[in-house]
UniProtKB/TrEMBL annotation:
InterPro entries per UniProt: NTF2-like_dom_sf (IPR032710), SnoaL-like (IPR037401)
Organism: Devosia yakushimensis
SUPFAM superfamilies in the cross-refs: NTF2-like (SSF54427)
Protein name listed in UniProt: SnoaL-like domain-containing protein
Gene3D superfamilies: 3.10.450.50
Domain named SnoaL-like: residues: 12-115
Amino acid sequence: MTDLSQKAEALIRRYFAACNAADHAELVACFTPDAVHYFPPGLPGAPWRGAKAIADGWVWCVKTLGSQWTIEKVLAGADGKEAVIEWTHWKTAVGEALRGDEWYIFDDKIDRIVEIRAYYASPVDKSQPINKLHDFDYAGRGFAMAPQSEPPKID
């Protein structure tokens, strides 16, 4: 791993820590002001445009859905400009989980996220408590099988 790829991974981990803490200011600080977060079809208001809109969205998820996220895998380019991860979105208040991947693009200093493109492991099926790939051995591959912590209480 190069210093630049480590810097990219550290930024992703900082972003996820801010998501899990519902830390609006820290979330905004992880993005360029004009950053864009793209999602598969079906999410109202998507894509989220701008650092504030992205932060607002994730704080809403923690407050409303009890969201917590785990990073399962990270692969960062040697130049630190792009990375891809696998994640799990635990929606603890509604008893659901969603798995997927995201492609990241960073600014030239690799200290802010410019763009995220999210891809879900499967179409969201509201009849399933945990959306996942068919017959994929998540536990056997070392993926988290429950959230690592409780979401913070937000008034």
